[in-house]
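for the recovery benchmark. tokens below, seq after
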């Protein structure tokens, strides 16, 4: 055996900046960066004062020491460029604000500060304080900021959680052929998260216009980079993902500015994403005003060493030393920045003695606390919803073909619809034929992904926030758990958290593979899991007619929609209106598919056929079963009006699901029904569910797990006869 040395071609370098670079840089830009650093420092010191005075609810993660990263990066971004940030985001927000509201060539020493900047700083302060004037109406607070107008697509409190979303924003720019970049800021701690690796890999293979800036402030809370990574230079990570990688002094705004400028050129010319590691330091501990050394994970000596590079002093000193700005000019800039912060504080607080208190009338209206969790439905204002009775002629179609057909029809109508998932562009129609023929017709809009559910669902979320309509296929429902943060913490919550300032039109399609012998990690019916996150709408069509109409509604919806497709339905034939894939079925409207007077049975998806067969068998016993196909099964969309009407007639109710009891929605429906319709009920509400175990592979054992016709028939009989 022998070893050959492998020398991959890596573009991985350290950037060094000299006096010449300073002297060759436009003095307005240099002065502008000083202004940004001063404003950020003044703002965050003020936050600490306000927090100390009890005016801020929640943690304050300052960027004290890290201001140069934001000031440098934003100095070369265009207002249309986008940025994403983390729990430590004030510096990014303020610098982007300045970048967006100062016109090109703005001279901080001579020009008047635009009103919009002062208003923007007030919006940030208001948000951190949880006030209605905040950029998200006080919903998000310090860690969940968003301001689309300035290209601040969102900060995120899940470490690395925002990275796939930012990658989705970059995807949207490329998709729309826009000449803009996205800068995704992250901490050194985020580099160890899977979401980061999945997202940067997607950026690498799809050559997305994104710059990942790792602000390596040496610690994630109290854990050093050395301890977490076993190495000093995190920029190396980029080389694994076809990125150009750079290390830069993050305490020097000019160095960061030059690095980001070069990154923009690389994106334009080489079409590769760029990873910049900006080495910097935060002086206080993770949150609050106290130095990190007080907590014992670092020394005072180390802090003192870094103090010498503090951009608040070292940068203006350098400008003075190189005769680029006088001490007087520096003071003038400082005064301007302090004035803006003071104006924002005056807007939000009054001083009583030595105490700041929140001004009257600035708290958000508590009656509106639930607003914006989901759309109010205005996107359907001009839609006439249809039911099967509205059509005269029909044609037969296989369920899986209906999925492909209606997806294709939407892609034909709207260029912003695209499909992504594992193998969706292969085998002529993806793993189940549900994307049949789409890749051949739309090769740029049907994207095979690597096996990285968190990465591509998060990317879809970011793209959806940017105006695209992604249709994500998740191969098996159980893989939801691999992408749980993106699906639930991000896609399911952000509309509300960002104060209803974003739409989230992601459609996720999932095959439910119960009964296929795939075992306990491929057989989940996830309806109950998604229903825990109320931002989601969940659809489980039992036939192709409903599928087509509900898919059209799902695509039009500005909320995330989960489409559950039971494996058993895929090969079944159903009628849909002849030559019509454009009708809409209303989400939230259930359907009586069989009338009866003895018992109401609620079900959805493949459960409907089972219930219909059982009901048919019970006719000879003299039992008249009413079956309601719920169709939409997200808790807020259950059609209780129809259920109530039925229950008034039958007096008894049974919910039939193939999902395991703990993963179903039957319990929640039973609770609601007894709260709403107690007076109509003659007997306890009954449930039929799968067993609460991971379905085994062995055929008889798996069959034992799932409710079959006998169990359903027996339970309908008992409920109808009031023998529960
Ligand atoms: C997934 C996740 N795990 C843990 C936390 C708790 N937490 C918040 S910030 C943080 C440290 C993050 O360090 P780093 O990414 O280096 O950013 P920094 O705080 O240094 O800016 C931790 C552990 C979290 N918010 N999210």
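predicted aa per position
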């Amino acid at each position: 055996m022998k070893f050959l040395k492998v020398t991959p071609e890596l573009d991985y370098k350290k950037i060094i900046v000299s006096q010449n670079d300073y002297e060759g840089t436009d003095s307005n830009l240099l002065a502008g960066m000083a202004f940004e650093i001063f404003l950020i420092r003044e703002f965050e010191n003020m936050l600490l004062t306000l927090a100390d005075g009890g005016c801020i609810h929640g943690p304050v993660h300052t960027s004290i020491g890290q201001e140069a990263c934001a000031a440098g990066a934003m100095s070369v971004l265009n207002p249309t460029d986008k940025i994403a940030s983390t729990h430590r985001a004030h510096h990014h927000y303020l610098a982007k604000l300045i970048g967006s509201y100062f016109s090109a060539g703005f001279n901080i020493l001579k020009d008047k500060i635009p009103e919009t900047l002062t208003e923007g700083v007030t919006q940030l302060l208001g948000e951190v304080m949880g006030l209605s004037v905040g950029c998200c109406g006080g919903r998000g607070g310090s860690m969940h900021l968003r301001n689309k107008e300035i290209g601040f697509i969102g900060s995120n409190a899940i470490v690395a959680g925002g990275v796939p979303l930012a990658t989705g924003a970059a995807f949207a720019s490329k998709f729309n052929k826009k000449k803009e970049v996205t800068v995704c800021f992250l901490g050194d701690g985020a580099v160890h998260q899977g979401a980061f690796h999945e997202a940067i890999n997607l950026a690498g293979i799809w050559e997305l216009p994104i710059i990942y800036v790792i602000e390596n402030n040496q610690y994630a809370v109290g854990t050093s980079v050395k301890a977490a990574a076993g190495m000093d230079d995190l920029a190396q990570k980029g080389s694994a993902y076809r990125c150009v990688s750079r290390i830069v002094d993050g305490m020097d705004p000019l160095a960061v500015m030059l690095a980001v400028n070069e990154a923009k050129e690389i994106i334009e010319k080489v079409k590769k994403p760029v990873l910049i590691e900006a080495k910097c330091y935060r002086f206080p501990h993770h949150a609050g005003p106290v130095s990190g050394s007080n907590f014992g994970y670092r020394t005072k000596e180390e802090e003192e060493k870094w103090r010498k590079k503090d951009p608040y002093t070292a940068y203006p000193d350098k400008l003075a030393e190189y005769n680029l700005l006088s001490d007087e000019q520096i003071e003038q800039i400082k005064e301007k920045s302090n004035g803006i912060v003071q104006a924002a504080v005056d807007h939000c607080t009054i001083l009583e003695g030595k105490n700041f208190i929140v001004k009257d009338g600035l708290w958000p209206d508590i009656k509106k606390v639930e607003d914006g969790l989901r759309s109010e439905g205005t996107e359907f204002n001009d839609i006439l919803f249809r039911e099967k009775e509205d059509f005269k002629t029909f044609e037969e179609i296989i369920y899986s073909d209906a999925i492909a057909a209606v997806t294709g029809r939407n892609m034909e109508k709207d260029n912003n619809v695209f499909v992504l998932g594992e193998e969706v562009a292969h085998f002529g129609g993806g793993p189940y034929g549900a994307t049949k023929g789409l890749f051949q017709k739309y090769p740029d809009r049907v994207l095979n992904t690597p096996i990285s559910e968190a990465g591509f669902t998060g990317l879809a979320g970011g793209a959806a926030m940017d105006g695209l309509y992604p249709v994500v296929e998740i191969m098996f429902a159980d893989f939801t758990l691999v992408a749980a943060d993106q699906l639930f913490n991000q896609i399911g919550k952000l509309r509300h958290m960002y104060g209803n300032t974003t739409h989230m039109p992601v459609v996720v399609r999932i095959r439910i593979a119960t009964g296929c012998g795939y075992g306990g990690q491929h057989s989940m019916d996830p309806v109950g899991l998604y229903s825990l996150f109320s931002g989601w709408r969940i659809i489980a069509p039992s036939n192709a007619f409903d599928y087509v109409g509900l898919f059209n509604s799902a695509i039009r919806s500005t909320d995330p929609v989960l489409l559950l497709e039971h494996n058993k339905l895929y090969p079944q034939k159903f009628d849909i209106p002849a030559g019509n894939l454009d009708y809409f079925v209303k989400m939230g409207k259930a359907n009586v598919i069989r009338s009866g007077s003895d018992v109401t049975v609620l079900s959805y998806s493949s459960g409907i056929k089972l219930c219909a067969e059982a009901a048919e068998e019970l006719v000879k016993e003299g039992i008249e079963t009413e079956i309601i196909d719920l169709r939409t099964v997200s808790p807020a969309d259950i059609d209780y009006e129809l259920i109530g009407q039925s229950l008034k007639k039958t007096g008894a109710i049974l919910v039939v699901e193939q999902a395991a009891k703990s993963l179903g929605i039957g319990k929640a429906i039973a609770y609601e029904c007894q709260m709403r319709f107690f007076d109509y009920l003659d007997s306890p509400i009954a449930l039929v569910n799968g067993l609460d175990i991971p379905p085994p592979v062995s055929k008889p054992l798996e069959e034992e797990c799932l409710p079959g016709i006998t169990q359903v028939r027996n339970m309908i009989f008992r409920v109808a006869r009031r023998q529960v």
